[in-house]
């Protein structure tokens, strides 16, 4: 079934459709009892008192009282759309994933988001954007839960609560909202210099996209592809917008945010309604799966690194087209539950320590956000394949499971014994060896270079892009109250580039410090100016 045939009920049968349609000739209670009036409470006389026995009043108010669910702990503000993904078949050389095979069409649901703002915040703030895609494949659901920035602030999931606490509003007065104007944000990213690369992307034009339709997307982590023979290849996923990459300028973002804080969600919905279906190509940067898991000296398990496209070109593997708006925001956009561990045969994880924590976090948070363990039964989260999972009961269970023996093998219900290892169409973890090592709480030495990639990014910028970056750092740092934080931020900038540091220092009215690190030798050739830039528009 394609996206146009998506049914919010998930069960397009007579009784269920009628119940959900809410368009009968008369109003009813939740039990289907017919009402003659819904505008007045039941009272003893027209001037009251109101009677407790009015079940309709209590049912209506009680349900309203419980209409809200917790917003996402991060990425609370989002907008989404249905669409279709068509594989080019080019990836079939390196992965057996069925949805990437030539001309296979797979329904998808994509949710774009900001990270730090609450559900009612403005679209146009300077922030990272989420770009999460649910592929309802013939082999089960695959989620690519990415961002519009190819690197992350931290290298280990244990720091995630810390970086988010630093970026969210101050605990005392709940201001400010965005990551701008925050002593805690700048305190964190200057004390944790692995955050330098992501912060620089945020301060660039990438932090204020023109439209969701004009953003790149990145899987960020390195994943592992597996072909039919079991051979493996490391991969980084990229989404390349057919409309190219475009940003707002800061003043434009401010005015737009004031006049239309819903600018991005309106832009997405309007474009789809008008038939201007947004498109992205899914691309893959592939690397040999060597025991070191490095490429050209870059540690592929460090999510603060990119691999420049000059060194590993992004190869197109399929086309995503968004074709339909959600019919109900709550049912679809709000209740959708992505998870980086929703994988299909042919795609596996690597040992990136940030990814490891994500694999735990999403299911955990969704149990509390979506009220128990059965949210995979919510229509938007149902796979488009049969489910036979032996999971039973629990809060909000809607399935009426059959049989008496929810375990396998059993001698009562029969059928479906495990064919241990024999079912080659199943998802099988790649048997990569785990090194014999002692337990430690520390990062590898290869995670220690925090400045050469930011320097490469800075040097690849055009003069006007550099002006924007300088203005962004100057504006944001000027909002910090603590002088020590500004000075530490200037030290970080000095380790990226003296010109960047000098100009921001002038804007802050502070002296520019000398670098404390040797500036990396980076080739500022014109080719490098294309690093992470626009995709050719055809
Ligand atoms: C949402 C945790 C890193 C992309 C979320 C949510 C949590 C979370 C708890 C809310 C999920 C929900 O309520 O349904 C984490 C942790 C991370 C991490 C613990 C690191 C240790 C990342 C990274 C990316 C990312 C590196 C990008 C590659 C997203 C996106 C969403 C999200 C796009 C929104 C999904 C949606 O639209 O519903 N994350 N995250 N996160 N995260 Fe992460």
From TrEMBL:
Gene Ontology terms: biological process: hydrogen peroxide catabolic process; response to oxidative stress
Gene Ontology molecular function: any one: heme binding
Active-site annotation: 75, 147
E.C. number(s) listed in UniProt: 1.11.1.6
Catalytic activity, reaction form: 2 H2O2 = O2 + 2 H2O
Taxonomic superkingdom: Bacteria
Binding site for heme: 72, 111, 160, 358, 362, 369
Descriptive protein name: Catalase
Organism for this UniProt entry: Streptomyces himalayensis subsp. aureolus
């Amino acid at each position: 079934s394609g996206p146009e045939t998506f049914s919010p009920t998930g069960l397009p049968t007579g009784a269920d459709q009628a119940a959900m349609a809410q368009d009968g000739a008369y109003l009813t209670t939740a039990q289907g009892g017919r009402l003659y009036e819904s505008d007045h409470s039941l009272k003893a006389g027209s001037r009251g008192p109101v009677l407790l026995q009015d079940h309709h009043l209590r049912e209506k108010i009680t349900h309203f009282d419980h209409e809200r669910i917790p917003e996402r702990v991060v990425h609370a503000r989002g907008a989404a759309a249905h669409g279709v993904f068509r594989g080019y078949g080019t990836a079939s050389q390196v992965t057996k994933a069925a949805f990437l095979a030539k001309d296979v069409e797979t329904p998808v649901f994509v949710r774009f988001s900001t990270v730090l703002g609450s559900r009612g915040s403005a679209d146009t703030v300077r922030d990272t954007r989420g770009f999460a895609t649910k592929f309802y494949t013939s082999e089960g659901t695959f989620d690519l839960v990415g961002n519009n920035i190819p690197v992350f602030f931290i290298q280990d999931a244990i720091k995630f609560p810390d970086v988010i606490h630093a970026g969210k509003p101050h605990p005392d007065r709940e201001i400010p909202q965005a990551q701008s104007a925050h002593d805690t944000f700048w305190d964190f990213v200057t004390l944790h210099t692995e955050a330098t690369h992501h912060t620089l992307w945020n301060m660039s034009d990438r932090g204020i996209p023109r439209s969701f339709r004009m953003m790149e997307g990145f899987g960020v982590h390195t994943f592992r592809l597996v072909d039919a023979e079991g051979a493996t290849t490391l991969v980084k996923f990229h989404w390349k917008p057919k409309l190219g990459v475009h940003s707002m300028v800061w003043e434009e973002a401010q005015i737009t945010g004031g006049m239309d804080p819903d600018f991005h969600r309106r832009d997405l919905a309007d474009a789809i309604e008008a038939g201007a279906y947004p498109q992205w190509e899914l691309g893959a940067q592939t690397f040999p799966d060597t025991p070191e898991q490095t490429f050209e000296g870059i540690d592929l398990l460090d999510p603060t690194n990119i691999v420049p496209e000059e060194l590993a070109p992004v190869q197109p593997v399929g086309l995503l087209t968004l074709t339909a708006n959600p019919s109900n925001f709550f049912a679809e956009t709000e209740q959708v539950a992505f998870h980086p561990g929703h994988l299909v045969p042919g795609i596996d994880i690597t040992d990136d320590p940030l990814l490891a924590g994500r694999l735990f976090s999403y299911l955990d948070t969704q149990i509390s956000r979506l009220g128990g363990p059965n949210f995979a039964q919510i229509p938007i989260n149902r796979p488009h394949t049969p489910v036979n999972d032996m999971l039973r009961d629990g809060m909000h269970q809607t399935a009426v499971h059959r049989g008496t023996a929810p375990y396998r093998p059993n001698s009562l219900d029969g059928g479906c014994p495990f064919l241990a290892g024999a079912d080659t169409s199943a998802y099988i973890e790649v048997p990569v060896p785990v090194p014999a090592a002692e337990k430690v709480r520390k990062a590898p030495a290869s995670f220690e270079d925090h400045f050469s990639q930011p320097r490469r990014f800075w040097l690849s910028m055009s003069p006007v892009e550099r002006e924007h970056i300088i203005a962004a750092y100057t504006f944001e740092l000027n909002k910090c109250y603590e002088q020590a934080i500004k000075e530490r931020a200037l030290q970080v900038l000095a380790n990226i580039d003296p010109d960047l540091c000098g100009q921001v220092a002038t804007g802050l009215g502070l002296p520019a410090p000398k670098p404390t690190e040797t500036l990396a030798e980076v080739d500022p050739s014109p080719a490098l100016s294309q690093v992470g830039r626009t995709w050719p528009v055809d």
